[in-house]
Amino acid sequence: MGLITRAIVMREAGKSPEIEAIELEQPRPDEAIVELQAVGICHADLAVIHGKIPVPFPVVLGHEGAGIVREVGAETTHVKPGDKVILTVNTCGECFYCNSRLPTYCEDTFARTWSGRRPDQTTTLKDGSGKPIQGNFFGQSSFSRLALVNKSTLIKVPQETDLKLFAPLGCGIQTGSGVIFNTLNLQPGDSIAISGCGAVGLSGVMAAKERGASIIIAVDLNSERLAIAKKLGATHAVNSRDGNTVKLINEICPLPAGVKYTFDTSAVPKVIESMIAVTGRKGKIVVVGATPFDQKISIQPLEFLNMGKHFIGSVVGDSYPPEAIPHLIELHSKGSFPLDQIVKYYKFEDFQQAFDDMLSGPAIKPVLVFDDGDGLN
């Protein structure tokens, strides 16, 4: 018999999930059992809950976990029981992209992220009646006190690491900062406009300040979020509620030079088009959000030709997690990446309040925290 624990189980899209007792299989050679201390909530989790991203049900979501290794399989040799770990994306470790330090583009991404099963189509979880539950979400399904995870998700961190604070580094925070550090490789004196002041966008603001950008323009509908962006390093704040975003940004960075880089986290087509419009000659536009499949943006190819613009997609900020996560922890310790300013903690059983607060605004990056002994054998 496997391990019994408690997890947030999503039975169908659009229906509120509930905490249930579930059973985890024993770890295979390339897997481990992690006792979660905390787990961040990402908009990708909410997108699944609200039916915007299709996955098989029932399912345990969660992909920003942090905890302590409890058991390891024979081939999981880079960590041992008792180690603190932050969980990140699940990759094969063998394809061209994994071997090129671009694991977020792994050729086996779908099977390892969205399928709800292992790549060989076996399930990892069962409910109280013994029926299969889809797990392996991003290789971890960490909305659970205990998680059965693939070894590729395990990033070992120092024992003094605050797992509650750094749990969100596995996805969203790594994405926002990674766009600045990797996708754009922003340099001192560069200018950038960032649309969307959620956790991803504000991580981009913090990273841009750390890199020494001369102009950091934060764009959002929410004046409170814009105030936070200014506190974290934005030099300008543009409220897009009145629909004059392009005009306001052009006043700050007039064309044709315009803004050197624009970074959209909103996934809203009209906002993306605004970012394209304000990007200057030889500038780059980066998108990271999951725009629905039935929505498109309108572009003028001649504008890209004459201005030499680049339109780029970025998955998890083109990060290499074994280096990116320790780097972000180090930056925080130096005071140049104040992640604590955007994190809000909730008890595990208060997950629905955390979901609601993320959608309505009170929480930028909600983190669920487990009580000692909660859901353990």
UniProtKB/TrEMBL annotation:
InterPro entries: ADH-like_C, ADH-like_N, ER, GroES-like_sf, NAD(P)-bd_dom_sf. The keyword Kinase does not apply. Its cofactor is Zn(2+). GO terms for molecular function: metal ion binding; oxidoreductase activity. The keyword Oxidoreductase applies. It comes from the Eukaryota. It holds the Pfam family ADH_N. Residues 14-368 form the Enoyl reductase (ER) domain. Keywords: Metal-binding, Oxidoreductase, Zinc. Belongs to the zinc-containing alcohol dehydrogenase family. This is Enoyl reductase (ER) domain-containing protein. It comes from Exophiala mesophila (Black yeast-like fungus).
